[in-house]
């Protein structure tokens, strides 16, 4: 069977003595077609309380993201309005979500693609504004500047305060503003996640996962007959594991935890689905490779996101445990070690013989600084 690889250049740095916590991301508002919003695009002002939880938006239109017009991947078309070639300046959006325990979130992660500018409100209080002028925003206020390709096509990520979250019912309200009356398009798609940290000291690999963790850390290889157990940690080639199983690394520590990683659970369910198992081995491997690429490739493409992803995770989550399935939520993309690990897990689930290999194995110069999967 042909060799299947998912590769990217990686680099590692070692820092000693850093506090360690498990990073978790919980989706509060999904992105794209899984979302449910109310929106007002009739050109009339919505009223003073439109940002607040008690506002009645039952007469507004309903739809799922992405919203807008003039773009290829719109799910719900927003009426341009305005007349005589001019477009409506502002469109209003509202959605609701529930939170059981707001105190568990240290901050919020807003992932958004907007054209041209917006102001976001959480339960009536301004949470974030982007590409908008300072001061009071009026219904006829234009965005600070025009957005055009390729910048208008990028999803951006903002870490925001979680102080405005309420126990139970919450409302996120958005006013989306055009850059000018002759704008040819409009776009809004976003997701909101709550980020929590489970306090702890240095991460400890559980007894049942130490053998495989140490094997990969030293030999840079996990064979096709070895399944990766829950509790497995990978912190890159410079990760250190002491005799008791405590781990430290200058990069994020990828954690395999099928029980608590909802995103990983969905990936593995796909890998063992009846539709997958009916395929021959090559087609199964090809499907998984395409699936993994889709999961870990940002909207602007792989090469544009690799360096940013590595630096972002190393800077913010050095020596901290991150669930493998949460990596795209936290930074929007993934590099070779994320891709190769997910491929190995999915291949095992799909009944394929797959070996996880790190470049240190020295198979050839091309794999010298990457993680790959061999079939």
TrEMBL record:
Residues making up the signal peptide according to the UniProt record: none
InterPro entries: EDR1/CTR1/ARMC3-like_pept-like, Galactose-bd-like_sf
Region (Disordered): 39-59
A Pfam family it matches: EDR1_CTR1_ARMC3_pept
Chain ranges passing through the membrane: none
Record-linked Gene3D superfamilies: Galactose-binding domain-like
Superkingdom to which the source organism belongs: Bacteria
Domain EDR1/CTR1/ARMC3-like peptidase-like as annotated: residue spans: 252-366
Protein name listed in UniProt: EDR1/CTR1/ARMC3-like peptidase-like domain-containing protein
Lineage, broadest ranks: Bacteria, Pseudomonadati, Planctomycetota, Planctomycetia, Pirellulales
């Amino acid at each position: 069977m042909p060799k299947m690889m998912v590769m990217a250049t990686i680099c590692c740095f070692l820092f000693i003595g850093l506090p360690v916590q498990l990073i978790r991301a919980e989706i509060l508002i999904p992105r794209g077609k899984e979302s449910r919003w109310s929106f007002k695009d009739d050109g009339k002002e919505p009223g003073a309380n439109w940002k607040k939880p008690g506002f009645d938006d039952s007469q507004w239109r309903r739809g799922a993201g992405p919203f807008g017009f003039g773009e290829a991947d719109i799910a719900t078309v927003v009426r341009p309005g305005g007349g005589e070639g001019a477009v409506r300046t502002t469109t209003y959006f509202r959605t609701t979500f529930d939170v059981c325990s707001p105190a568990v979130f240290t901050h919020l992660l807003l992932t958004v693609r907007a054209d041209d500018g917006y102001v976001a409100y959480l339960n009536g209080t301004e949470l974030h504004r982007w590409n908008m002028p300072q001061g009071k925003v009026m219904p006829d206020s234009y965005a600070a500047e025009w957005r055009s390709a390729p910048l208008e096509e990028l999803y951006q990520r903002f870490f925001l305060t979680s102080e405005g979250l309420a126990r139970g019912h919450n409302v996120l309200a958005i006013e989306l503003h055009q850059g000018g009356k002759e704008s040819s398009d409009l776009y809004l798609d976003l997701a909101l996640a709550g980020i929590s940290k489970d306090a702890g000291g240095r991460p400890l690999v559980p007894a049942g996962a130490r053998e495989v963790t140490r094997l990969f850390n030293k030999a840079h290889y996990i064979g096709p007959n070895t399944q990766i157990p829950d509790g497995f940690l990978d912190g890159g080639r410079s990760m250190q594991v002491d005799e008791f199983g405590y781990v430290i690394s200058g990069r994020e520590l990828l954690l395999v935890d099928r029980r608590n990683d909802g995103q990983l659970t969905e990936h593995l369910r796909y890998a063992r689905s009846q539709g997958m198992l009916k395929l021959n081995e090559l087609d199964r491997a090809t499907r998984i490779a395409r699936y993994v690429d889709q999961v870990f490739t940002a909207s602007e493409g792989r090469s544009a996101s690799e360096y940013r992803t590595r630096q972002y995770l190393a800077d913010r989550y050095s020596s901290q445990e991150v669930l493998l399935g949460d990596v795209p939520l936290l930074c929007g993309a993934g590099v070779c070690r994320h891709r190769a690990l997910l491929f190995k897990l999915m291949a095992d689930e799909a009944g394929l013989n797959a070996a996880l290999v790190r470049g240190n194995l020295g198979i050839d110069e091309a794999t010298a600084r990457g993680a790959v999967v061999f079939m």
